[in-house]
Amino acid sequence: MKGLSRREFLRASTLATAATIAAACTPSEPTTPDVSSQPVAAPESPAQPAAPPELGTGVFSESPMLAELVETGQLPPIEQRLPENPCVYEGLDGIGNHGGTMRRAFQGQADTSVVYTLLNRGLLDVLGPEMSIRPSMCESWSVSEDATTYTFHLRKGIRWSDGEPMTNEDYRFYYEDQILNRELTGQQPVALSYVVSDERIPATFATVDDWTITYEFAGPNSLFYLWGGVLGGIPARPAHYYKKYHVEYVDKDVLAKMISDARVADWTELYWDKDNYIFNIDRPVHYAWVPKTRFSEEFLVYERNPYFWEVDPAGKQLPYLDKVTFRLFADRQVAMMWAINGEIDCQLRHFDLPEQYAPLKQGEQSGEYRVLRWRSSQIYGSYYNLTAKVPRVRELFQERDFRIACSLAVDRDELREMVIEGLGRNTQIVPPPESPLHYPKLANAYLEYDPDRANELLDNLGYTERDSEGFRLWKDGSGERISFANVSRHGAKAPVLDLMLTDYLEDIGLQMVYKGVERALTRELWYSNETEVEVGTNFEVLFPLRSWFNWVLGEVSKRGWGNAWGTWVADPTDPIAEEPPKGHWSREIWDKWLAIQSIVGEEEQKQAFWEILDIWAEELPAIGYFTDAPLPVICKNGFRGIQEGFLSDNGPTNYENFLNGASWYWDDPAKHS
Amino acid sequence: MLAFLLRRFLLMVPTMIVISMISFVIIQLPPGDYLTNYVAQLRDEGNVVDENLLQRLQDRYGMNQPAYVQYYKWISNIVLRNDWGDSMYYKMPVTEVVGDRLTLTIVLSAATMLFSWGIAIPVGVYSATHQYSIADYVITAVNFIGRGTPQFMLALVVMWLAMTQLGMSVGGLFSPHYIQAEWSWAKFVDLLKHIWQPMLILAVGSTASSIRITRANLLDELNKPYVETARAKGLKEGKVIWKYPVRVAMNPFLSTVGWSLAQLISGTTIVSIVLSLQTTGPMLYIALTAQDMYLAGSFVLMLSGLTVIGTLLSDLLLAWVDPRIRLG
What we know:
The complex is a heterodimer.
Chain A: H1 6-25, H2 64-71, H3 78-81, E1 87-88, E2 101-106, H4 113-119, E3 124-127, E4 132-135, E5 138-143, E6 149-154, H5 168-179, E7 193-196, E8 199-202, E9 204-209, E10 212-216, H6 224-227, H7 239-242, H8 252-261, H9 267-275, E11 289-291, E12 299-304, E13 310-311, E14 323-328, H10 332-340, E15 346-347, H11 357-362, H12 364-367, E16 369-376, E17 380-384, H13 391-397, H14 400-408, H15 412-420, E18 425-426, H16 440-443, H17 451-460, E19 483-488, H18 496-507, E20 511-516, H19 519-527, E21 533-537, H20 563-570, H21 585-596, H22 602-619, E22 623-627, E23 630-636, E24 639-640, E25 647-648, H23 655-658, E26 665-666
Parallel strand pairs in A: 1-13, 2-14, 16-25, 19-20
Antiparallel strand pairs in A: 3-4, 5-6, 6-10, 7-8, 9-10, 11-12, 12-14, 15-23, 16-23, 17-21, 17-22, 18-22, 24-26
Chain B: H1 2-28, H2 34-44, H3 51-60, H4 67-81, E1 86-87, E2 92-93, H5 94-129, H6 134-148, H7 151-164, H8 176-179, H9 185-222, H10 225-232, H11 237-243, H12 245-249, H13 251-266, H14 270-275, H15 280-289, H16 293-321
Antiparallel strand pairs in B: 1-2
Helix pairs in contact in B: 1-16, 5-6, 5-9, 5-13, 6-9, 7-9, 13-16, 15-16
């Protein structure tokens, strides 16, 4: 056939492709978002909330969605649904409007936090931009002088989401029938016991009157309010519901039938299945929104709880939003597209990687949202395993000057430049300035970039010989260069941070080898004490007495810098457990920590904790680099209740908790149903 | 024929046994198990793990037992009680998890398959009969581009275009308000509006190879003497091409159609993940990465069973279509 020969065709198409590639490779103008390098100051906290209106004066109001149900008789009127003295909260943007839906996205079955962090409320909560611990579901609480007895006054008339009253029976049931029942709860939780050597003496629960409960401990337990399940959670379950599945309250045959119907092995499995409220949506809860779809669906819908026990200062029942929906995505890129398309109303989770910030900012106009800049409390650091298996590695890591040298060898400013566009600030691993327990001496220890001094320190330790490439040699005469492995869960592609740290260490003659493995494998390696270095972040630093494991050994696999020692403290019989040497500073830390649990009084606790941080400032067990990485929170135009500039931590100081999702609202709810 | 069939059926049993053992072992191979994965994930996110919860889950899923005990429990449940186990990840029976996704997967796979064959065969035939024409070169070029572009990238590009140019909501097969709604004409229309994305992406990749195969096989056949003879005898051109050489060129399709049975229910994984489709592909992927033994193992067993049956079916189909092949 006449025409284009094969050769000519190939030639033409190659040229065309080459031209296309050349065009694609031409760099376009980078659009940098206009960000300052200073952290944004937090706004002023709002005025004190006014006292709630008197009950019976008819000044409580509810969402039109519920008012309709009251009209048709499906719900009792609001005065009968609220407790006598509801909790009062004023959101950051004041009194809001009832109605509307908030749309969010979640990544699959493992992403349960996306619901928990929004919903969790407790007897006590961290509320308000000043992040103070306030009574939430309880009216008030007190601690005895010697910190052995905690008393909580419950709100009279408070109800579960199905309308049944919440009483001290629910608290008693939870403690005596669930926690103390060894079939259900294998071991008495530490938080609800007084620990004497190895024994956990369970607390005693008592009801003083219909609306007052106490927990009494065999000895002082001054931190119970932080981890006893009362902060951000309630030590109670709807007894009227749970008793149907508890072996002590149900007929054996009825229970046996339920067990076989549900295809579980025994009644405890049935009980726990019913306990899981995101899958068992029949279970009454105390949260602002109640699940209407099981968590295994593609599209989750949560609707307001008609019996929610909180109001705003104008008497409007919270939450303002009628519904919260979550849409399933598998790949983060799809979630990004939704965000840029304006289909996400308010979310931080899954949009918190530094590289997502620029595209999100670019889509602000067309998506009709704004990107609020928050700060992450995560501190990036290196954790050298002082109890590493290989003797010469362990010897090196245990040298204080080695760790100091590793800290001085890092140019933190440059690191921040590469990892988070120069934002954030340098720090060691310490509670942030927003916490009263912030300790500047530790925060600023060895932050300067001084590779000469670092080299000097290592020389003084005796590691003076170097090989042809400039790496120092071990002192054991083997002629091998100093090399240790950085096990990372990030897989084959090393993150920029790790790569730069490798370079800095190379400058002082140490070789850190990057070893990317699958996440489950990192845990296995920690549990068998095979790891040498781990580079990563920690979490939850705003309430150090709650997240003590950041600074005190005792729980392995939580960024262990003394892996084997920590295991020994937790469980001496573990094969990798190793007792720290007598008089070692890690023992001092542990002893001081134990003492704190008996100290009453915030100021005294602070001083005691500072002693621990002082040891850290001297010994530097783990090295911190920087914190305050930018966290974008997507917030659609017209959505109120969230503002810019706060610090986002984990646990009860998650942004959704302390800014109270129940106080968020739409300017125009009708447009967002 | 009967002897052949009987022999094949008998062979299926040991095949399936071996497959079940191998898949069980392989799924258990990565270090750790579902629980350690789960714990690792929780810890990475900064959540404190309740020690009692771990113990409960370990007891519940029999993690502490030796591998052969676990295997025996799993396989005996399937064979004797038709109980495919519970998925640890979804906290539902495996049959429910798979069943929820099966209809959509089959619909999507079948539609894509028919669509791609419907395009590939005529285009391949045209390409072969009009070899070296402009059309042939264009088709070849598009083929190579389609083959060379990674599917997930194509998926992202198509989604982006759909979002920015067409203003559609992307991700998933339905718009948010239709996901929970009952089936209706409007929901069906919504499905059509979304389903062209995965179909287009998948078709681009698979038609490319089918076209090339058809073209190559047909070119081989078209040069054979019987084609010349048929033409010389005055048979219409269309009939010459379609009735004889194409039938022979179809051989490779038919021999692989057996695998399509498994393909039908497993769908495609990468594109489904990118597009957030609720099909069985992503489900299997998630089950494997989370080491959800029952879901992954049971589903792999299902797929293997279908593949074995499908292979038999395609052997029979081939024998029926091509008289040169005799079984037995």
